[in-house]
Fold this protein.
Amino acid sequence: MNGVGFRFNKVEPTFGFFYHFGLSETYGIRVNAQYMGLGYKAKDIGTDVDINYLTFPLTFHYNATKHLSFNSGAYLSFTLGGTKINNEDITKTYHKNDYGISIGGEHDLYKNFSLSVNYVIGLKNIWLNDNATYPDPLNLTLNSKYTNRALQFTVIYKFKKTS
């Protein structure tokens, strides 16, 4: 039996830098390096978990208008640390890396400032013992699977090359 468990998302910071390669007026590729804080609150069991990642997204950008673009791409993350679980490092419970996809949009606001909204979807089961099964009180077998999900709102300042 597979079940879906929900936890309350935490608001955590994300910051970083990127380089945008303009392929044309309409298309571009962006290479990022960023710190991404993720985590959850499990009120039913009284647990708060933080997982900190160094993330490397690679996104494809489509400029719909002069001030509005849409993006999608993939990312690879490496765990930097987080909450100690049973007095052990977080990587004793969760994998040391993650990968997935992201999709979003960006709007230029004023001069070099933009606002970006992205949804990050982890594809890897981050639970370290991802092949384990756990018996429940009715003697059914439950598979545990945890993946990262994040909604990111980002204020961007763009340094532009001068000719």
About this structure: The chain has a mean pLDDT of 83. Strands lie at 8-9, 14-22, 27-42, 47-63, 68-82, 97-110, 113-122, 133-135, 141-143, 149-157.
